[in-house]
Structure to design on (509 residues):
């Protein structure tokens, strides 16, 4: 090659040197898959040979340096008596190995479509787990509603008993008291199982997709899958840049990697939504807690110390515990909303799968600036290109699911922001109500409490607006909200300009 010989001249020289036929890399050069699964492909790469045909006691082997020593090694590995060699160049042998392992040149074994499908399966399991957690949290919020209602019944019953005594009113007070206790017990049964979710929630970690130049891999897959990304594959970006020159199977490998990266993004967004759901659950508890604190403090300030002091202090203590419990969830889950919105914005700025097929004019390499044209002609019949087209359509549909997942994440952040606002308004109302009803009592402690409630309420309202306003702005920028949506119906046997389209109207729906 250094003397400037062409590739076929080099192969012919090697064939003459070793006295055997030569072969170059073609996608049709394959080995028996049932045998390749049992062999150590890394060892075969190091030894420089590949089994092409194995029949009875004879094997046809592709090698870069055929010889008697290698023949003995092949016979021992494959259990045959005779070996027929075909010689090839080292780079061609590597391509043969890569193709038979379903890999594009230079990629690690984890980039095969089967390993990538396994990773997507684990990611789907993780999303199902998050959906299960969100269902538990929704159930716990229903349980909290039971608790709030039950506590209200108990409080009303005891207040009636406190103000008007027992007597005939016991027929009203006793059912309220019993009903409230039952509802509190039932609500706790729904709430407590969801309380421990935070300790088992996986971290919302995005390994950082790189557009097909790295591979998403999984470790500890059978116990607790952990996802990581491989090192950047040398030459992968340049290879993908020449998309129209790639074979259909090479394109499908890149599309499988794209779908895996999209699956990772959906999983991370599901994690963010789960953490924000827990924040909303906690804030619902906080609002209930402060309502009971304010009721207990109001009774204490109005009636002063009396034989009902323990009841007043019980309301205050119960409310304080509920408020602290809710704020515990709020502080631990607030970061999810910040990171979730940042992730949506970052992914929205990245290139989509269509950019590889129809790149922007100013992004095209070279001086001619001619756009790339899909290798489809009207004379082509469905077949291998149709298989690639189906893979492309699956990838495009996966990307559309990601766009809708981003929208759901943004809306979850907006709902969480509104929960902040509701909680802030509750605190603000407590402070303002005490200030208007009792006025400036002259007691520094009560005045500090009033202004502290108002300050905390204003802070939460501002924090909620900080969460909800940008989320609403992002929602308006995303599709699938208003207007019409046009989707092409692919027919990969004809050029894309002949594809039919279907239009979905939001108004008509």
């Amino acid at each position: 090659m250094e003397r400037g010989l062409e590739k076929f001249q080099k192969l012919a020289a090697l064939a003459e040197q070793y006295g055997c036929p030569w072969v170059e890399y073609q996608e049709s050069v394959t080995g028996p898959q049932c045998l390749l699964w049992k062999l150590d492909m890394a060892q075969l790469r190091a030894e420089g040979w590949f089994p092409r045909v194995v029949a009875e006691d004879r094997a046809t082997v592709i090698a870069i340096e055929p010889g008697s020593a290698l023949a003995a090694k092949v016979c021992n590995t494959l259990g045959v008596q005779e070996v027929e060699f075909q010689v090839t160049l080292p780079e061609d042998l590597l391509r043969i190995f890569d193709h038979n392992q379903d890999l594009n040149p230079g990629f690690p074994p984890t980039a095969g479509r089967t390993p990538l499908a396994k990773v997507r399966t684990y990611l789907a399991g993780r999303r199902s787990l998050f959906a299960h957690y969100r269902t538990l949290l929704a159930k716990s919020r229903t349980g909290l509603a039971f608790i709030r209602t039950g506590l209200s019944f108990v409080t009303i019953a005891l207040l009636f008993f406190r103000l008007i005594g027992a007597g005939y009113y016991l027929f009203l007070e006793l059912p309220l008291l019993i009903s409230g206790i039952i509802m509190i017990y039932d609500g706790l049964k729904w709430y407590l199982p969801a309380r421990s979710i935070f300790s088992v929630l996986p971290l919302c970690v995005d390994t950082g997709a790189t557009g097909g130049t790295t591979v998403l891999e999984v470790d500890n897959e059978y116990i607790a899958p952990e996802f990581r990304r491989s090192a950047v594959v040398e030459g992968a970006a340049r290879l993908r840049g020449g998309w129209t020159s790639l074979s259909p199977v090479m394109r499908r490998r890149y599309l499988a990697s794209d779908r895996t990266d999209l699956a990772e993004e959906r999983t991370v967004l599901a994690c963010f939504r789960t953490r924000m759901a827990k924040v909303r659950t906690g804030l619902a508890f906080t609002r209930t807690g402060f309502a009971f604190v304010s009721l207990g403090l109001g009774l204490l300030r109005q009636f002063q110390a009396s034989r009902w002091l323990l009841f007043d202090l019980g309301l205050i203590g119960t409310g304080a515990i509920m408020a602290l419990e809710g704020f515990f969830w709020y502080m631990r889950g607030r970061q999810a909303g910040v990171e979730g919105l940042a992730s949506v914005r970052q992914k929205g700025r990245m290139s989509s799968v269509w950019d590889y097929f129809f790149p922007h004019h100013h992004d095209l390499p070279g001086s001619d600036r001619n756009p790339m044209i899909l290798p489809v002609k009207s004379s082509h019949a469905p077949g291998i290109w149709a298989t690639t087209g189906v893979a492309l359509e699956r990838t495009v549909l996966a990307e559309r699911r990601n766009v809708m997942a981003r929208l759901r994440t943004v809306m979850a952040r907006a709902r969480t922001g509104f929960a902040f606002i509701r909680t802030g308004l509750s605190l603000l109302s407590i402070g303002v109500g005490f200030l208007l009803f009792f006025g400036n009592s002259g007691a520094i402690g009560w005045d500090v409490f009033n202004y502290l409630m108002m300050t905390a309420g204003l802070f939460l309202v501002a924090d909620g607006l900080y969460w909800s306003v940008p989320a609403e702005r992002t929602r308006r920028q995303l599709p699938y909200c208003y207007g019409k949506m046009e989707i092409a119906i692919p027919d990969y046997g004809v050029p894309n300009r002949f594809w039919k389209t279907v239009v979905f109207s939001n108004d008509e729906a």
